């Protein structure tokens, strides 16, 4: 799934599904690093999916990168803004929720 996530030739929906799938598996250094990298992808869908996956994994290693999304007000159709989701994920990882 990491290869699919990182393959920019794949469409954003496929890459987003790969990110979400990684959030359901036990984390590895490779998968966590790939998800963190995708927080800066040009696709909002891929960024949002990577953010959700890192939240599911409660990845403390990703906190700094997740905090960079607190400037993003873009909204995923049918979802919340990256800012709002990042705020929730940060609070969850820190044990504030």
Give an overview in words.
The structure is a single chain. By secondary structure, the protein is an all-alpha fold. Helix content is 59%, strand content 0%. The protein contains six helices and no strands. The chain is globular and about 35 Å long. The chain starts with a helix and ends with a helix. 32% of the residues are buried. The model has no long low-confidence stretch (mean pLDDT 95).
Count of helical segments? 6
Mean pLDDT: 95
Overall strand count: 0
Q: Which shape, going by the Cα principal axes?
A: globular
Model regions low in confidence, pLDDT < 50 over at least 5 residues:
none
- Label the structural class: mainly alpha
* Spatial separation of the terminal alpha carbons: 29 Å
Strand content: under 5%
Give the assembly state of these chains.
single chain
Task: Write the element-wise H/E pattern from the N-terminal end onward.
Answer: HHHHHH
Radius of gyration: 12 Å
């Amino acid at each position: 799934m990491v290869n699919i996530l990182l393959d920019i030739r794949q469409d954003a929906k496929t890459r987003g599904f790969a990110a979400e799938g990684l959030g359901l598996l036990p984390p590895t250094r490779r998968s966590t690093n790939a998800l963190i990298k995708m927080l800066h992808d040009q696709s909002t869908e891929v960024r949002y999916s990577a953010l959700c996956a890192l939240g599911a994994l409660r990845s403390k290693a990703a906190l700094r990168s997740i905090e960079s999304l607190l400037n993003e007000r873009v909204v995923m159709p049918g979802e919340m803004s990256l800012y709002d989701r990042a705020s929730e994920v940060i609070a969850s990882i820190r044990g504030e929720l």
